[in-house]
């Protein structure tokens, strides 16, 4: 009987499916405890202005080392945290940590330095979000203009008026907003101009083949022109090669982020990077 079952092709998938379901359950239960177990940390990836070669800011990226299952990438646990709602307290922890760790990178000689933090749709739907943000800024004495919140296109759809209202509250506070992963979603361009974005971040999937695909290059050029017309800054994500940098420069995109300029790193590494950056900056200033 067991043999006959073994020959049935549909049954071949069972053990794998069961293993996947068990894995997902395990992930969910570990994730639930991750905050109180203090398993999260933030890495920061530099953003560069290629006209001056200076670090203009960093993006905070969440890292989770689970005691039980080891390192889990955000691509695997963020969607789960969004599903369960755990992203709301986790996201609050991210903002708090980014403000307290990042405060020291803002100084008179680097007063335009911006710390970017990713925001999920669930956080924006929290009616208390703006008030929470305001009190965190006060608590850490963090200048609002030095914070940027990144949201994706999918966050804009749904209850547009409500989301727009929260976004306007954020911008009225002096905090900047960026649209992340631009070029991957399908929301209407009409919405883009209604939202108070300061920066458009071009998704890394569009940058990847920019050297070989004239179509991708055309799309990027169009996004750059669009950002200019809307008077928004434009930043290219996922820049990995010098050749990509040259093309972006030629097309008029001067802000980049990617492995070429720096991997996401621990706060200490950013301290060292900024010390070097400052030394360089004062050199070229005379
Ligand atoms: P994202 O916000 O678009 O962040 C950029 C991602 O691209 C990061 O992946 C970064 O490590 C990766 N990256 C940077 N430069 C390069 C490059 O040159 N090449 C390639 N191939 N990749 C590069 P990461 O850290 O795995 O994060 C993935 C996504 O998870 C983020 O995409 C963001 O959507 C989400 N995420 C990360 N941290 C948070 C958070 O604190 N809150 C929320 N809601 N989402 C987060
Ligand atoms: Mg981002
Ligand atoms: Mg992105
Ligand atoms: Mg930015």
Automatic annotation (TrEMBL):
<protein>
    <recommendedName>
        <fullName>Diguanylate cyclase</fullName>
    </recommendedName>
</protein>
<feature type="domain" description="EAL">
    <location>
        <begin position="24"/>
        <end position="278"/>
    </location>
</feature>
């Amino acid at each position: 009987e067991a043999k006959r079952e073994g020959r049935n092709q549909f049954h071949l998938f069972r053990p794998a499916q069961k293993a996947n379901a068990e894995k997902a359950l395990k992930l969910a239960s570990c994730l639930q405890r991750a905050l109180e177990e203090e398993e999260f940390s933030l890495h920061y990836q530099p953003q560069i202005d290629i006209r001056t070669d200076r670090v203009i800011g960093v993006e905070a990226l969440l890292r989770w080392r689970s005691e039980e299952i080891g390192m889990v990438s955000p691509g695997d646990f963020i969607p789960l945290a969004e599903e369960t709602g755990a992203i709301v307290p986790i996201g609050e922890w991210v903002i708090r940590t980014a403000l307290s760790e990042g405060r020291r990178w803002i100084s008179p000689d680097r007063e335009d330095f911006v710390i970017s933090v990713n925001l999920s749709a669930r956080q924006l739907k929290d009616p208390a979000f703006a008030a929470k943000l305001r009190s965190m800024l006060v608590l850490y004495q963090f200048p609002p203009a030095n914070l940027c919140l990144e949201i994706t296109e999918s966050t804009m759809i749904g209850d547009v008026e409500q989301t727009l209202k929260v976004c306007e509250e954020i911008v009225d506070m002096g905090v900047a907003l960026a649209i992340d992963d631009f070029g991957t979603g399908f929301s209407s361009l009409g919405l883009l101009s209604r939202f108070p974005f300061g920066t458009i971040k071009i998704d890394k999937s569009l940058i990847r083949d920019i050297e070989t695909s004239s179509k991708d290059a055309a799309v990027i050029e169009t996004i750059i022109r669009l950002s200019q017309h809307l008077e928004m800054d434009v930043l290219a994500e996922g820049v990995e090669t010098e050749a990509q940098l040259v093309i972006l420069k030629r097309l008029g995109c001067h802000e980049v982020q990617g492995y070429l300029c720096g991997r996401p790193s621990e706060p200490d590494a950013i301290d060292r990077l900024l010390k070097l950056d400052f030394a360089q900056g004062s050199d070229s200033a005379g």
